[in-house]
Amino acid sequence: MRRPLTVAAAAFALVATGALVAPSPASAHWSCGRAAPPDLDTTGGHHTVFTANLRVGSSLRCLDVGDVYMSESLDYHCYALDINGLDTWTYVVSVQTKARGWIRDDGLNDNGSRVWCPGQTQV
Questions:
Q1: Which of 3, 29, 111, 119 has the fewest CB atoms within 10 Å, i.e. the most exposed one?
Q2: How far apart are CA 68 and CA 66, in angstroms?
Q3: Which residues does UniProt assign to the signal peptide (predicted)?
């Protein structure tokens, strides 16, 4: 007879298989103008798929502070949700220009960071 999985066992199974686990949508985001999140992502080979706007938070509502071009290599820090919990955003730093900010993940060659930013603003 099979025993039912507990919530903890199910969460462990997701983490063990490499599935992405994060807080519930619409529960957190990176507010406009907050200090940069920690640099937790050690992966490389990142760039945009088109000229992308850098923003001061994880939302189109946040101020646009510049552009990043496809030719620039990017250092990822971590990702956050937008304020509606719909889209994911990655905090990036351009290796060439040192420009920094948030880019929506659909503008990145690999759909952004897989490392969750701790300390997001709760809605």
A1: 3
A2: 7
A3: 1-28
